[in-house]
Amino acid sequence: MSTPETTPPRGGAPVGFLSELPPVEAGAVLCLRQWCDGAEGRRRMSQDFAAALGSRSGEAAIRAFEDLCDLCTRHGRRPLMRHHLGCKCLGADEACFANFIAAASEGSREDALLFATLIVRADMAPWLAHLAETFGLSLRRMAATPAHGPATETGSGLPRTLH
What we know:
Layout: E1 14-17, H1 23-36, H2 39-53, H3 55-75, E2 81-82, E3 89-91, H4 92-105, H5 109-119, H6 125-144, E4 160-161
Parallel strand pairs: 2-4
Antiparallel strand pairs: 1-3
């Protein structure tokens, strides 16, 4: 039986391992973790995207992700939970976020919109899905570039770190 001290907060329960995800989904989770790790993580993420996509496209991807995170923070149904950058676990909220970004990047707009409604208020979901599509397509381009994979390790107040 679990106690309040041992029960992970809603959305934080491990549901798998980051290594089990395809590149775009893993990249989405790692970007979320890195972005939330603070200014240094954001700087590294910006450098990674600029190196992989060029300065203009990299900046557009980062801007979309920044707006996406801002919407999640201001209009989220509840705070997203995340694990520490180096954690091998995949949390429930992170899995939802990863699937959301992947669906949006594949052009599965109805699925992306459904995922978005799990993350933010319904009136903000279409805008969130649009930003996810922009960002997800950038992750797809990066994943297709052999020299660059998904961004790696790195807190803003967006999600809470579990471990």
